[in-house]
């Protein structure tokens, strides 16, 4: 098997602290579910949000063929705003060819009211070959899509999260 990696950075128009708090810092998923309405229909959390916690998201059919997105937190460093997780996606053509996938997301301040989300996706394909560049982009943009939905919600609802 060949281990592959794809990385991307994404500017976000909210502070690093706010993005981290809503998207990554706790087991309270109420704001995350509001922010991702139309993308995530339901979420179950087993754990306290730290390493070992499992998040199971039921995806909205409008998002495509993927039905369930399951994440297990491997490592989390709140001071560095970094989380490393392993993922299983049920449904979808890219998920069907993956043996495993892990992400590392770091949220870095980028001035007042802005940050950069840095994501690396490490994956292995069942057939041992890397994904095509187009499928790599789809894979990493699936994760970034969640971050952009959170950003969109927080910009439209300033002050909702203290």
UniProtKB/TrEMBL annotation:
Domain of life, source organism: Eukaryota
A Pfam family annotated for this UniProt entry: Bet_v_1
Primary localization: nucleus
One GO CC term on file: nucleus
Domain Bet v I/Major latex protein: 1-157
Xref: SUPFAM superfamilies: Bet v1-like
InterPro entries: Bet_v_I/MLP, Bet_v_I_allergen, Plant_def-hormone_signal, START-like_dom_sf
Compartment annotation: Nucleus
Recorded family membership: Belongs to the BetVI family.
PANTHER family: OS08G0374000 PROTEIN-RELATED, OS12G0555100 PROTEIN
UniProt protein name: Bet v I/Major latex protein domain-containing protein
């Amino acid at each position: 098997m060949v281990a592959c990696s794809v990385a991307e950075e994404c500017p976000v128009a909210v502070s690093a602290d706010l993005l981290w708090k809503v998207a990554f810092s706790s087991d309270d998923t109420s704001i995350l579910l509001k922010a991702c309405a139309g993308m995530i229909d339901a979420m179950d959390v087993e754990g306290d949000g730290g390493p070992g916690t499992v998040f199971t998201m039921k995806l909205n059919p409008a998002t495509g063929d993927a039905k369930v997105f399951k994440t297990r937190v491997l490592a989390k460093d709140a001071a560095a705003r970094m989380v490393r997780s392993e993922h299983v996606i049920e449904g979808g053509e890219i998920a069907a060819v993956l043996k495993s996938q892990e992400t590392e997301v770091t949220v870095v301040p980028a001035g007042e009211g802005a940050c950069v989300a840095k994501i690396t996706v490490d994956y292995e394909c069942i057939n041992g070959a890397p994904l095509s560049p187009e499928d790599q982009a789809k894979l990493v943009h699936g994760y970034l899509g969640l971050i952009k939905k959170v950003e969109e919600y927080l910009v439209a609802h300033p002050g909702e999260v203290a």
